[in-house]
Structures are given as structure tokens and as C-alpha cells.
Amino acid sequence: MNRRTGMIALLGAIAATIASAQRRRPRVGVLLPGSEDLYVAYVAALREGLADAGRVEPATLELVFRYSGGSNERLAALARELVAADVDAIVTSSTPAIRAAMAATSTIPIVFAAVADAVGSGLVASLAHPGGNVTGLTLLIPDLGAKQFELLAEMIPGLQRVGVLRGRGEGAQAFETIAAAIGAHGASAQLVEVDAGDRIAAAFAQLRSAASQALIVVDGPLLNGQRAAIARLATAQRLPTLSTLRIYVDAGSLASYGPNLAAMWRRAGNGYVDRILKGTKPADLPVEQPTTFELVINLKTARALGMTIPQAIRTRAQVLIDE
What we know:
The chain is of the alpha/beta class.
């Protein structure tokens, strides 16, 4: 009887050990403020970054996804779902999603793969010393707006009137820096905000009334989801359009210039999530700025707009789309 009792106890201990080991497989929540199709490339890059560190699903890692479908109102509930799922860290992107995660937990580490202005938005105390349970990578580059205007000015001689489009409540800092850069070059900025996807056509009517010669799009979940409509209306209106994100160019806009977001998502995986899972506190991981930038030009769109892209710009482009 004692031998049988001992065997049962041993088997129970083994089962408990296996269950504990299985649960200790890290579980990482991913909270995204848009539809799944918007994040395919970035999620792939996150997985690549985690794989760089030897963390591969399902053997050594579990990813739990929540997508808001473009509704900021859903983010709070989705963040609470991830906390209830007992995740070990949360990866997210955009100020509204980060704020939702911060409201849901003050203890679970939060890594933002990309945010417009981490300090200005009050998400972290400073880039060097973020403090709290939040850290990651910021998109804010002081002269990015100036570089974007300069690219448009090279492609459009005599450029004087530039529209700047954003979703209401999104990209406020970028909105201001782009407008300031346009003004500093002696041109005027027509600032247009939309609060819903069905307002895009009205925004373009406003840009036409202002005689805008070009358009800079401030990316955000609302406009990202309307990128195809933006490209279509801009082409119909013969309005050269530049954005920070390549997804707009892939959808038919003229050009993009900005950080390589895929590289940032990969860095979020191997430079932040992996280190946090090994025990490093978010407060001890400085916020990083992007180091890789890319210029992408859609030559097919340029022809549709009746434009000839200068050879000097074509040479500088990392990607030329011509299909």
C-alpha cells in the first residue's frame, strides 16, 4: 500500500511539474488598434524578432491577439481581456492603444512597437528613463516633416500649397511638426481633419477648394483603414500624396518616407519583449528612436498623375513600385 501511495504521489508530482512547465511558456498579449489585415507585415516582423531570440510559437511562446477593428472605444475592453488572460507582457502600437493598456494594468510590462511621440504624449517620463511599466520605440523624428516636404518640393516645382490630412485625435504632434515645416519653407499648409471614414470624400473636396498642390497624410488607425480610398481620390484629383507608411503607396498613393516600421516591430520582439521575459524591467529599457528609413515611390501612380519623378529622387528610393 505504501508503495502504491508513493507511486501515486510521484505521478501527481510529475503531472504538476509538467503543467507548471507548460504554463511557464511565456504568454504575450498583442493589442492592435485596427483590423488584422493592416498588421500582417508587422506581426510577421514581431515574430521574426522573437525568433531571433529563440522564442517560437508554440514551443516556447504563446501570442494572444486582440484587434479593435479601428474602434478606439473597444481598446479598453480588449486590454482588460489580455490582462485577464494572465499575459506576461503586452505589445501594442499607437497612443490610444497604449493608453488603454496602461489603464488596464500598472504591473504587466507594456512594449509599444511604434508611437508618434512617447514623451510628448505623457506615456513615458523620458526616452532614457521611461519609468513605470511602459517602454518601446518612438516614431518621433524632429526633422521628418521637413524631409517629407522637401521631397514633395523636389517632385513638384513651385510647390506652395500643401494639404495635411489626419484623423481627428490622431497624430497631433506629427500634424503640428509637418505644418511648421511647411511654413518654415515659405509654403502654406491646409490642415484637414476627418472623424470618420465616410468623411474622406468631403476632406478631398475641401482640399480641392483650397487649391492644394500636394497632400501629406498623417498616419493613424482611422486613415490607415481608408488608404485605398485616399489613393483613389488623390489620383482622381491629380493630387500627389506622400505619407510616412509604405502601406499607402502599396494602396496606390504616390510616395512614402519614414521609418521602416517592420524593423521597429522586429526590434520590439528581440530588443524589448525577450529582455523583459528574461527579467529586465521596462523602466530600465530606454525608449529607442528609429535608425532605418525608406523612401518608396509608386511609378505607376506618378504616370497616372502626369508626373515625371526626377532621377535624383529615383536613385535615393529604396523601393520603386511599377506594376
